[in-house]
Write a structure and sequence with these properties.
The longest helix is centred in the middle third of the chain and has 22 residues. This protein has a single domain, classed as Aldolase class I (TIM Barrel), CATH 3.20.20. Helix 11 packs across helix 12. It is globular, with a radius of gyration of 21 Å. It is of the alpha/beta class. It contains 12 helices and 16 strands. A hairpin with a 2-residue loop joins strand 14 and strand 15. The strands form 4 sheets. Strands 2-3-4-7-8-9-10-12 form an 8-stranded parallel β-sheet.
């Protein structure tokens, strides 16, 4: 991803006070359990025993993070407040020697504080990243990486390899990397990234040819089926797959997964206007959520211009002040609340790295406010949505890029 200096900041009027998390508080105080207000019933909990905890009592939150070294005790206490956590690529590899070991160390530490947290292990379905123990065996697989007509294998941003998903030996290796880590009780499932690249017909087609691309797409579907069979029905598979760029916004690919991570919601591609793209994304999120899928919604506090190949990857940028962060929260939060259903989780951020500073621990007062269950689905009129919760009224105007939450 290539960060740019051009940053689009959403201009929304919201007056909130930013607070820093209180690590002196207990988990039970910070993350109330139970289902007093629209939470999970006993029957639903039994049928979705592997799903993250959820309650309408407050906004349910998601965490997506990586750190090259070990998390501090203070950071682990903070992470333990989240019901759903993905430990990103490069997690812990500098201190523990590999991503696998770094992820397991972090996952076990969080589980000691909050055994109910659901933790996902990051794997990219197509982009080859370093730092994994499993990579030693990859070198023994002939034709594991795609190559262009000149034999070049650095096809992703001219610096990373891409898996040849049409290669059955490669697929077997990849599936085993997932099975081996998820066999640890501290890991509750897989976060599958790169799915948009794998499924977008034009991605890498110029380098490898359209027929080869079609073969890799077929291989991708076989690999997803193999992964489910290998890790079993009780482990989560959450993919970065819902995107308005697809004909059915990615819903056509959801049968493999327990849920979807969402990014790039506000980066329209192709001929779609911004308004058309965002509306289509909201509709897809609503449909998936109402089908009982897990939704991990993410958005940047600052949205730079998307300069990635085919607009697939989402660039990140930092806000310049707490005031900008406060002003930027309302719009993505309103989008989330308009579409959210049970098992929907929210994350707004400035990137996924915890290597530099504590900006990733920013905590807004809205996260502690009572929300309560919705009175029903959102009502849409043109580009304007409204939805009522027990303790909040949500207003969203896509045309003006404005969101407002009125707390009652």
């Amino acid at each position: 991803m290539k960060p740019t200096s051009k940053t689009l900041l959403v201009n929304v009027a919201i007056i909130v006070t930013l607070v820093v998390f209180n690590t002196g508080a207990t988990f039970a105080q910070e993350q109330p359990k139970g289902s007093a207000i629209g939470g999970t019933t006993r029957e639903e909990a039994e049928s979705n025993a592997n799903f993250p905890e959820f309650s309408w009592e407050r906004i349910s939150l998601y965490m997506h993070i990586r750190k090259e070294k070990a998390y501090t005790d203070k950071e682990i206490a903070f992470l333990a407040r989240f019901p759903l956590i993905t430990f990103e690529k490069a997690n812990g590899h500098e201190q523990f020697g590999s991503v696998e070991r770094g992820t397991l160390m972090a996952a076990r530490a969080v589980k000691k504080v909050n055994p109910d947290a659901k933790i996902l292990y990051y794997r990219n379905v197509i982009v080859h990243y370093g730092g994994y123990d499993a990579n030693q065996k990859l070198a023994q697989i002939p034709g594991a990486l795609l190559q262009d007509e000149k034999g070049n294998t650095k096809l992703v941003r001219n610096r990373a390899g891409a898996y040849d998903l049409s290669n059955p030996d490669l697929r077997d290796w990849w599936v085993e990397t997932c099975r081996s880590v998820t066999s640890d009780p501290a890991v509750d499932g897989i976060f599958l990234d790169g799915t948009v690249k794998a499924l977008e017909p034009g991605y890498l087609a110029g380098q490898i040819g359209r027929e080869k691309k079609r073969q890799t797409m077929d291989g991708y579907h076989l690999m997803m089926k193999q992964t489910r069979e290998a890790i079993g029905p009780d482990k989560l598979m959450i993919a970065n797959v819902i995107r308005a760029r697809f004909p059915d916004a990615g819903l056509e690919y959801m049968h493999h997964f327990d849920g979807s991570y969402l990014e790039g919601v506000f980066h329209n591609v192709g001929t779609a206007s911004y308004e058309e793209y965002v509306v289509k994304g909201i509709d897809a999120m609503q449909k998936a959520a109402r089908q009982g899928k897990v939704i991990a919604f993410t958005a940047g506090l600052a949205l730079p211009e998307n300069t990635s190949t085919m607009g697939i990857d989402e660039d990140h940028a930092k806000v310049k002040s707490d005031e900008q962060a406060r002003a930027a929260l309302a719009y993505p939060l309103a989008v989330f609340l308009i579409a959210a259903e049970k098992y929907s989780y929210f994350r707004v951020h400035e990137g996924y790295s915890a290597n530099d500073g504590d900006r990733w621990t920013r905590w807004f007062p809205e996260y502690d406010k009572p929300l309560g269950p919705p009175s029903g689905p959102a009502v849409r009129k043109g580009l304007v949505y409204r939805r009522t919760f027990q303790h909040a009224d949500v207003y969203l105007d896509i045309g003006r890029r404005q969101g407002k939450i009125t707390w009652k």
